[in-house]
Amino acid sequence: MITWVLYDIKNNSARSYVSKACKHAGLYRVQYSCFLGTLNANEKDSLELQINKVINEETDKVYLFRMNKEQLKECSMLGQAFDEKLVTDEVKALFF
Question: What are the C-alpha distances in Å from 33 to residues 4, 8, 72?
């Protein structure tokens, strides 16, 4: 399922860790603190656990949104949107 990860993390090392964890999970960077890609339920749970270990729940904000391809098509993306081909299962398989 398509997963969005958006975050606002104060600590530089925690923010860097989350960025690397998102990339390692196979997500594509859409904006500086926004990643998108296809994760199954186990991959999403694993990423959530990794992120939860490093964030400060008092100051940081992290959102993980899941949607299917039909819901993604209903989203409005203005300006320089991302390349939707980068979040399909077929492209992801090329990197593994």
Answer: 11, 7, 19
